[in-house]
Amino acid sequence: MIVLGLDGGLGAFSTAALQSKTVLAAVEVPASRALEEGLAAVSAVLEKAGIAPDEIDRLGVGTGPGSFTGVRIAISYAKSLAQGWKLPLAGVGSFDALEYGIEPSPLPMLSVVRGRTGVVSVRYRDGRRESRHSGYVRDVVAELGAPPDGLVRAAGDTQDVLAALAERGWSVEPVARVSSPAAVAVAALAGEREPARTFHEIRADYGELPAAKIPNLPGTRGA
Asked: Which pTM was predicted?
């Protein structure tokens, strides 16, 4: 199976082609140029891999959380390509992409994704429970609560979070991402999953609430 993956939530915009989980080609462009160069990156991956669109079996796209703009761009491109090429499309969350390929362990895992400045989304799993939190670092760390007994592994953009957790008594060991760029993990996981029944099922997971809300004004709906 040949899978083409796209991701824009975990930093740069990336795309990768995999065949049976072997990387055929991967291209990454800066997040600031994703809108202008994203489709060119897809074309470059196909050229490097020596494949045509009609040889692709499935598309995968990172659905977030992460960069608000990057997630939107990647999903828009993926849906357009899937519709134009008549290919199934599978969504892959950023936490799963970060943890892909990391050696299994009985230790708890904390995955961290950075959004806008000062804001993160995290997923904590310890075999008994799973929780997600999004917001400013100090608020997220407070929501995580008391430290568990023993060591916790942490993947992703952890720098600010690790310092805050240490202040609360957490013992955390950073774990490096195995697959890079992110689109490699997205493509690999998309190949393992059932694709969406319709493109409408692929939705962005921004993790956090918008930075600002439009107030209800007197005389307007909902006032």
From this structure: 0.90
**What CA–CA distance (Å, rounded) separates 63 from 52?**
25
Dihedral pair phi/psi, residue 172, rounded to 5°: -125, 135
Interatomic CA distance for residues 159 and 112, integer angstroms: 9
Q: Average of pLDDT values for 11-22?
A: 96
Cα distance between residue 207 and residue 28, in whole Å: 23
Q: How far apart are CA 170 and CA 6, in angstroms?
A: 34
Q: Which residues contact 161 (CB under 8 A, 6 or more apart)?
A: 110, 112, 120, 122, 137, 140, 141, 154
CA 64/CA 71 separation, integer angstroms: 6
Task: Please give the pLDDT value at position 209.
Answer: 54
20 Cα distance to chain centroid:
21
Cα separation of 103 and 99, whole Å?
Answer: 9
What's the per-residue H, E or C state across the chain? Answer: CEEEEEECCCCCEEEEEEECCEEEEEEEECHHHHHHHHHHHHHHHHHHHCCCHHHCCEEEEECCCCCHHHHHHHHHHHHHHHHHHCCCEEEECHHHHHHCCCCCCCCCEEEEEECCCCEEEEEEECCCCEEEEEEEHHHHHHHHCCCCCCEEEEEECCHHHHHHHHHCCCEEEEECCCCCCHHHHHHHHHCCCCCCCCHHHCCCCCCCCCCCCCCCCCCCCCC
Which pLDDT score, from 0 to 100, does residue 116 have? Answer: 83
